[in-house]
Design a protein that fits this description.
The protein is α+β, with helices and mostly antiparallel strands and 317 residues long. The protein has helices at 25-41, 58-61, 80-88, 97-104, 106-115, 129-139, 165-175, 218-222, 239-253, 289-296, 301-310, and strands at 13-17, 45-49, 66-69, 123-126, 143-147, 157-159, 179-183, 187-197, 202-203, 207-210, 228-230, 257-267, 273-279. The chain is 34% helix and 22% strand.
Length: 317
């Protein structure tokens, strides 16, 4: 993937938005710290900015000219901060207001993908423990129960018995009143980032995730070294290219721009890939997957941060 020469001084004063008020605040602070150090190392006039501690209007008053969004979850990845930046007229990294809002809502994302003929596991929206038990009867075991508008596997349970449904629903509902149940696809778990926009968007190398006992949870994502990330992914010939094409379609269907990362399960029996979700403000921590994939494509962490910042935009500019 070719490298682009960028005049970092043309970025002006840059805010790295990190922290925020979501359940993923801790991870966001780690992502933002990494991005801030990388941009400064490249000569960018970058400053940390935590919207949970400061009025977002200060960005305009203090002369910030671009924002790198390193926020994760609600109020940072769901179109809200993107809308605020649109009103302030400050270009920002990642997808715009609508794409961010839709991608954060796993149900809306699935509805659009299904309408466009893209494969995603069967699901049910549930509003009670009784609904969850009914979904278990319909979808079978194992089944995933998770909040609709949350990330980093927070509030997620893998249910194998019907007597686990009540607790699984209660845990998910603590995070979001909208809860969904999803058919579990047994097989290889992979993820694939996309950089760019429109017809110029490009999929990066696929990463295969091998977690302890197949449990890729919050702890194994960010705070242990037990999870293995394979890149090259080692998939059978042709599968990686097919997944890259599928992820690219998923990205373009939601009208994403800048960057995103889609998670995919490959059915062990049929080898059919299923889209799980798409993250429009992916992690940039030491354990994060986009930097890992970019490195395999010859893009350093620092160059990736600069490239994303160079693509900062507004919906209606």
């Amino acid at each position: 993937m070719e490298k682009t020469l960028v005049d970092v001084k043309s970025f002006g004063k840059v805010a790295v938005l990190m922290g925020g008020r979501s359940a993923e605040r801790e991870v966001s602070l780690m992502s933002g710290t990494g991005v801030l150090q990388a941009l400064r190392a490249k000569g960018v006039d970058a400053h940390a900015f935590d919207p949970a501690e400061r009025d977002i209007g200060e960005l305009k008053r203090e002369g910030f000219q671009r924002c790198f969004i390193a926020l994760h979850g609600r109020f940072g990845e769901d179109g809200t901060v993107q809308g605020a930046l649109e009103l302030l007229g400050i270009p920002y990294t990642g997808p715009g207001v609508m794409a961010s809002a839709v991608a954060m809502d796993k149900l809306m994302t699935k509805r659009i993908w299904i309408a466009e003929g893209l494969p995603t596991p069967a699901w049910r929206q549930v509003r009670s423990a009784a609904d969850t038990r009914a979904a278990f009867e319909a979808l079978g075991a194992p089944m995933i129960v998770k909040p609709v508008r949350e990330g980093s596997t927070i509030g997620l349970t893998k249910v194998t018995r019907i007597d686990q449904c009540d607790a699984a629903y209660a845990l998910a509902a603590q995070q979001d009143p909208m809860v969904m149940c999803e058919q579990f696809i047994a097989g290889d778990e992979v993820t694939c980032p996309v950089l760019g926009a429109g017809a110029q968007a490009q999929a990066l190398p696929v990463i295969r995730i091998v977690a302890p006992d197949g449990n890729y949870d919050y702890q194994n994502k960010y705070f242990t070294d037990d999870t293995k990330y394979l890149v090259p992914c080692g998939l059978p010939a042709g599968e990686e290219a097919a997944i890259q094409l599928l992820v690219l379609k998923a990205f373009q269907t939601l009208d994403c721009r800048g960057w995103a990362r889609a998670d995919v399960m490959i059915d062990a029996a049929t080898r059919k890939p299923y889209l799980l979700e798409i993250n429009t403000s992916p992690g940039m921590t030491g354990h994060s997957l986009v930097p890992m994939s970019a490195r395999a494509a010859g893009i350093s962490y620092e160059d990736l941060c600069v490239r994303l910042l160079a693509a900062a935009a507004l919906d209606n500019a």
